[in-house]
Amino acid sequence: MLAVTPSTGQTVADTSVPQTGLNIPEKLTIFGENDPNVRRATAVVNGDIITGTDVGHRLALIVAANGGEVSDEEKQRLRLQVLRNLIDETLQIQEAEANEIVIDQAEIDSTFQQVAQQNFRQDLEAFDQYLRERGSSSDTLKRQIKGELAWSRLLRRNIQPFINVGDEEVNAIIERLNASKGTTEYRIGEIYMSASQENSPQVVENMRKILQQISAGGSFVAYARQFSEASTAATGGDLGWVRPAQLPQPLADAAVQMQVGQVVGPVEVPGGFSILYLIDQRQILTADPRNALLSLKQLAISFPEGTTEQQAAARAAEFAEATQQIKGCGAANETAARINADVVDNDRVRLRDLPGPLQNTVAQLQIGQASPPFGSVADGVRVLILCGRDDPQSAAAPSFDQIMSQLENQRVNKRAQIYLRDLRRDAIIEYN
To answer: What are phi and psi of 392, to 5 degrees?
Structure first.
């Protein structure tokens, strides 16, 4: 409900007022102007206030996680979603407190430090300044962390003890795994949003906007943490390794057609819609050649500032000719010195950790052979020489405990969605 308070007014004249059926004069005065310095409540959730500042800080956190590349139109749409997320977060924290669950500040601070170092690669002092410069704050991220920890602990207390997974279920899965040796399983990321018949079009439109942002370079993990309604939101939407038979049929159908790194959606599933991200895939109980451990030597040259494409191409051709004549890693350093190239050694590079386009190229190299040159004028040109390779052993089946844990997590996730829907239904929420 909008509060109307008389103040200096704005006069609006419209000579072609459409027929709305409402008694609205052609010439009218809008009383009251928003003062950006006044903290107004955007919503009151069971007595707890969510202000416009809260929404703005959380929105800025999302924008920062996506490199700041978000259009004004997208920000407005995200603002509405952020408010819904903050309402859910408030309900989760309230429910945890009602169940006498207390999250220590030390635990919140420790997780905050991990996020700063792992997600943003910054120390605490620099991270705090980084957030302020982008219109957010440490408090808004700590509030999100508190909500995630509180909800996770609440689920472990109120739901997980009542989830039953029988030994026979786990043994049946192990038998199916052995029977399925060599078939494909997938590591899936998911952003799930519930939908009813009435709001399905809006949910679909919201998810398409999210998909566009991710396709344009936005962080899937950041969007999953902010918008997914599944309990896996706290882990960036990561479902772990799953077989198609473990997924709802619409998701299974989508997964088997995806390429690694691809994001698709929205996919309609029971109760809502999902965006899927195929993080990786592998063959069940089969050694993955991409897990091979490589010993590599890198030779690199750089170009002086002002080098033209033509000059760089000529220098790169000379570099390629010299490196392709290298006979084994023992001769690489001598060649590097002759052509004035830098050398870097690394004896523990996993094949799967190389950039995608390089994986197939390096996988086909013989010991002592150099890759074709790669790079750019700005970054320089380099080659990789394969000095050694340790192929992976046959993959082992997941343990009994790992399979049981996965089944438990899936069932907790379903119960958690129902739990949150009940909290929303019973909440007293006043919008402003």
So the answer is: -70, 155
Which residues, in sequence order, are CB contacts of 8 under 8 Å at separation 6+? 33
Report how far residue 390's alpha carbon sits from residue 392's, in angstroms, rounded to the nearest whole number. Answer: 7
Cis previous bond, 392, omega within 30:
no
| Amino acid sitting at position 158 | N
Instruction: Tell me the one-letter amino acid at 385.
Output: I
pLDDT, tens only, 144-188: 999 999 999 999 999 988 888 888 888 888 887 777 777 788 899
**CATH number for the 165-286+401-425 domain, one of 3.10.50.40, 2.60.120.260, 3.40.50.410, 3.40.47.10?**
3.10.50.40
The pTM (predicted TM-score) of the whole model is 0.55
Nearest to 62 by CA among 252, 250, 220: 220
Which SS3 state, helix, strand or coil, does residue 289 take?
A: helix
Whose tokens are 């003890």? That residue is 161
Pair 277, 189: CB distance under 8 Å: yes
Burial of 50 (0-12, 13-18, 19+ CB in 10 A): buried
Superfamily of domain covering 41-157: Porin chaperone SurA, peptide-binding domain (1.10.4030.10)
Q: What is the pLDDT of residues 222-236, one digit of tens each?
A: 888 888 888 788 788
Instruction: Reduce the DSSP state of residue 258 to 3 states and report it.
Output: coil
Looking at CATH, the fold of the domain delimited by 289-390 is given as: Chitinase A; domain 3 (3.10.50)
